[in-house]
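Predict the assembly for these two chains.
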Amino acid sequence: MKLLDLNQVEISHSLAHQGLRFRIGPFSVSLHSTFSSVSDRIGFFYRDFLTVDDDQFIDFHIHIKKPDNLRHWIRPQSVFSFDGFVPFKPLPANQAFPIFEWGLNWCIATTAHQLLIIHAAVVEKNNHAIIMPGNPGAGKSTLCAALVCRGWRLLSDEMALITPNDLKIIPIPRPIGLKNESIGIMGNFGEKHEIGPSVMDTSKGTVAHMRPPTESVKQANTGVYPGTILFPTYSAGSGVELEEVGKAIALARMTEQSFNSHILGVEGIKVMERVVSRSSVFNLKYSNLDTAIARIDELIR
Amino acid sequence: MPEAPMTLTCLLTETLRNPALANRYSATEWDLLIRQARSARLLGYLAQSFLEQNGKQVNVPDYARYHLESAQWSVKRQNEALDWEFKLLKQVFRDDAIPIIALKGGAYVLADLPISRGRLFHDIDIMVPREAIEKVETRLQAHGWKTTHNNAYDQRYYRQWMHELPPMTHRERETVLDIHHSILPLTARIHPDAGKLIENATPDPENRGILWFAPEDMVLHSMTHLFHDGELENGLRDLVDIESLLSHFGKEEAFWSRLCERALILQLTRPLFYGLQYARLILGTHVPQETIETVAPWGPGRMVRKLMDLLFTEALLPAHHSCHSRTTGTARWLLFVRAHYLRMPLRLLLPHLIHKALIKDLDKEEELSNKFKQIFADQEKE
């Protein structure tokens, strides 16, 4: 069963009571929340995701709740907790859905060390995966969203999950996070995609999410091997420039972007080295999304 | 083996007592087990006992195995980092003849005890002779360590009453270091002689320049920490330490009589009684009959013992909401008060607890601290 088989009332009821249980990539989540914004957006963004039966194991028991104090009368807040543990300070209540997305990132990055986790978007076409590690502001999410609008499969917009043994990238398609200008840019870019309401004044500025394509969610069980690593940089007014990157530099930059190389240590670096050595690595400078995509399409031909 | 009281229905403690039970667990029981173990900071220990080669032969389903393997990675990296910190500490004191004793988790890692392969901890604890404490502090400051708790009240609390300095942190690595000169506060009712602990310490066979307590002292320290310190959120984890140390060292028959002798010498007979009592009661630890008989008179009277059994079996459950009954909070609170009562005479304890309850607003801290200084100054005159 998928979440879209439940109506909005059923989703709200599950969230408020026994917990809404669904599968996100390789993980199962049980989510509790009484915020209507959470229930609306879960129903919207996660409609194609599979539910998890009551008798199954859950990886992350998550609550997004109102704080247990009188503040909700004055300035309402939302608190993220992972099975009773609260890793961050409360945020304003209008960020209740984004805090779920950020909190889930935190759960994965701090507890899933059976995988090598890299801060990167991953897309795939013709069985060729492109890993795009990104410093904030490099335009990785925008480029990822644009590629996905043009038919690439979304594996993740935020984290590459790599199995240490066979180097397969495990898909975890989720809503794509967009910030500030990219919200407007993506709004004008395609037709098929759908962007949810914007949330203003977060620590990242204005944020909105784009629904992951149904087709990508359907293929969430099919992993892909790394093919290309691309370090994107958005540079206003520039043409498309593709420049090959040396393997040693690529390895250093990938390590910088890893969420858990400090835990996996030498073993993690060795896995990363194998990923880098089997991939072609480029810097990509771009300003126009269509020409950038045309250039990336050429890469896999 | 003593029967556990009826309140003990927690899946994690049952599994720790009898790991083979896990072979019949459903997915939802594994779900609860992993959650309780994570909350109790025992995921690494569970991983060690289920997954290691000479482990308990439990068939772990993949969905649970991932969480256990992940915890093993964290433990492995932590232990490497700890080894490195101790190498750096040895450098700091290379020109001094000060014995530096690793305590608790750090000692377990350096001594390569089985418990270290599954244990997660936050800080590094060391002990040094009290007369060397100033020199130790100065040396550490010169090597990038800075003191914390900079307000006057806390500094005084640590330096005048406690058995440790305010924690130090390293400026770059952010490691937290607790420096003890005894194993109980100066104000506590019992005074184990720190000199005797240091004299008896085991030197590092790998010559990293650090020592650790002899096996009996290590066990007694662990018990003293748990039953006289009041921090029971990680209580079950600490009890698991005790169980693991006892089953490791206890393989040697002579260990048990040495343990009782040392408890007498160090005035730690009561913590020994409690440690053995609750390790047996909650985790089913094997203790020789002779030892049980030796320590029996070292416990409290019958009524107090019954009360303590009730309180500790409740308070030592994992800090997970599935193990909380309506009385868990009260049990922990009562034991917290008891531990503080053991740490400090009432004339110091009451003002301290009041101070801690009031100090939520940092602006008021200095002002209140001055007021309390006056109260304490008056008391000391008496």
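Chain A has a mean pLDDT of 93. Chain A has two domains: 3-111, 116-299.
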